[in-house]
Structure formats: structure tokens, C-alpha cells
Design brief:
- By secondary structure, the chain is an alpha/beta fold.
- The chain has a domain at 8-100 and 172-251: Rossmann fold.
- The protein is built from 10 helices and 10 strands.
- A 6-stranded mixed β-sheet has the order 6-7-8-3-9-10, sandwiched between helices.
- A hairpin with a 2-residue loop joins strand 4 and strand 5 (76-77).
- It is globular.
- The structure holds adenosine-5'-triphosphate and magnesium ion.
- Magnesium ion binds at residues 48-49, 177, 207.
């Protein structure tokens, strides 16, 4: 069967990442397809977080860390010296595992914080707050409490708020690193539903330890082991007919 791949919005090409002399990603080629969720799975230490950070020009912020190879965003190498890293970080948003709203700011200020920090004065601040909170499914429950501190929200609401905050900068790609790792099953379901909705308008990448989560939310899966891409495939296929024995061993819990 010939599988015709949809066009990649963001694509790692021969991507290598180093911490000092240690090479932790080895010539990865992974596409993130537009309008889909790509899950990166693999045991702890396999390089999932490092990969996501390389895709958004965050890796280089770690002292001694560097990248080799390319990451193409709409075909443009984000590591080209002429490219502005902060512009890339606006187009490729990252969401941390543990919700990290600014504690001294209100819900409203948090949504607008990316714009404020980038020096952008939004004419239509109120409508941005409304549309971003709407997009993450928080508006109805929170519209009368926009001025309460962000930290007064429940953990899952804080995670939704962090996603709303990134949406205010109108990203094209959203990368989520274990976004449910501190959430209970109900809250996890809420974030998974949200990812499902968001993929219609954005390109999503998620790192997860949970194979069940990858199976539920993703369209494509990349299995990474010790910094190497072992297998990239449609989600159904990877879980039902993995082509590499190491994928099968991981899926069946033989390691990791
Ligand atoms: N700041 C750092 N300095 C040096 N080495 C690092 C640093 N961060 C990560 N590493 C190493 O890079 C490799 C990949 O780590 P990474 O955190 O990307 O893996 P991961 O798949 O996200 O793991 P986990 O599932 O535990 O989150 C590991 O060997 C790790 O020890
Ligand atoms: Mg990680």
C-alpha cells in the first residue's frame, strides 16, 4: 500500500541535539502534519522534551546546548542564521507539563501577557481575551471572574489558561510536553478533547508517556528510543502493526 503523506507544517530533518559533547538526538526526521496531532512516545530520557524544544528554538536557551540539522517551518529552516528565534517561538508555541500561569497576574492579564511581553498593544484586548478563553473551553465558566488571580483556578483550568495565553499570540503550531502529567483522569479527558478541537486550526505535537493517550489523541506517532527515531507511522498502524520489534517491545511493556 502506498501511503501518501500530507504536507508537513513543521519537519525535523537530520536533526541532532547536543548537551555539551553529548548527542541526545540522532539524525531525526519527523514531520508534523498540518491539521493533525503527532505524538512523540518513548521511555524516559529518550529525548521527547529535547525534540520539542528543538522544534521551537528553545533548546539553545539551555547553556551548552546546541542543534545540528534543520527544522523546516512551511519549508523555511528555523535555524537559518537570518531567522529571528523569537518570531519562531511565536509561531511555534510550547505548553509545559505543569501549568505555569503567571501567579501575580489575573486570568485576563495572563491571556494578554504574551502580547504585553512582546510589546504589542492590542486594540481589541477584551475580544482577544474572550476568543482565546472560548477556544480553550473556559469562557462560559470564567467570564464573570476574569480578574481573579490565575492561581485561584483549578489545575486543569490553569492548563487551559496557559493554552489560551499561547493562542493570544496566534501560533500556527502548538507543542505540548506531557500536558496531562499532573492531571486526574477527568481533567486529562478535558485537555484531550481540547487537543482534538484545536487540531482543526493548528498543527499539534505532544510528548507523552502514555500510550493510551497517544492512541486516543494522535493521528501520527513517532517512537523515539535513546534519541533515535525507531518508527513513524499512522497511529492505528503503529499500535496494531508496528514494523520494528523495538516498537512492539515498548508497546507490550517489555521496557520503558
Ligand atoms: N539540561 C540538560 N543537560 C544535560 N543533559 C540533559 C539535559 N536535559 C536532558 N538531558 C539528557 O538528554 C536526554 C534526553 O532527555 P529528555 O528530557 O529530552 O528526555 P524525555 O524523553 O523528555 O524524558 P522524560 O520522559 O523523562 O521527560 C537524557 O539523556 C537526559 O539526561
Ligand atoms: Mg520529557
Amino acid at each position: 500500500m502506498v501511503v501518501v503523506e500530507a504536507e508537513a507544517k513543521l519537519e525535523a530533518v537530520d536533526l541532532e541535539a547536543f548537551y555539551g559533547a553529548e548527542r541526545v538526538l540522532k539524525r531525526l526526521r519527523i514531520p508534523l502534519v498540518q491539521g493533525a496531532v503527532t505524538a512523540v512516545i518513548g521511555p524516559s530520557g529518550s529525548g521527547k522534551t529535547t525534540l520539542l524544544r528543538c522544534l521551537s528554538r528553545m533548546h539553545e536557551l539551555t547553556s551548552g546546548a546546541r542543534v545540528q540539522g534543520a527544522v523546516l517551518l512551511d519549508g523555511m529552516n528555523i535555524y537559518d542564521p537570518a531567522v529571528d528565534a523569537s518570531a519562531v517561538r511565536r509561531r511555534v508555541a510550547t505548553i509545559a507539563a505543569k501549568p505555569n500561569p503567571f501567579p501575580s497576574m489575573s486570568v485576563r492579564e495572563n491571556v494578554l501577557s504574551g502580547l504585553t511581553l512582546s510589546g504589542i498593544r492590542a486594540q481589541d484586548a477584551e475580544s482577544i481575551v474572550e476568543s482565546c478563553l472560548h477556544e480553550v473551553g473556559l469562557w462560559d465558566q470564567i467570564k464573570d471572574r476574569l480578574r481573579i488571580p490565575a492561581t485561584a483556578l483549578s489545575t486543569v483550568e490553569q492548563q487551559q489558561l496557559c493554552i489560551a495565553r499561547s493562542l493570544a499570540l496566534r501560533p500556527e503550531v502548538i507543542l505540548l510536553d506531557e500536558p496531562c502529567s499532573v492531571l486526574d483522569p477527568m481533567a486529562t479527558a478535558r485537555i484531550e478533547d481540547l487537543m482534538h478541537d484545536l487540531r482543526e486550526r493548528y498543527t499539534l505535537g505532544i510528548a507523552t508517556h502514555s500510550m493510551q493517550q497517544a492512541a486516543r489523541v494522535s493521528d501520527h506517532v513517532a517512537f523515539v528510543l535513546s534519541g533515535e527515531l525507531i518508527e513513524y507511522s499512522d497511529t492505528d498502524r503503529l499500535f496494531t502493526r508496528p514494523s520494528d520489534v523495538r516498537t512492539e517491545d515498548y508497546l507490550t511493556g517489555r521496557f520503558g
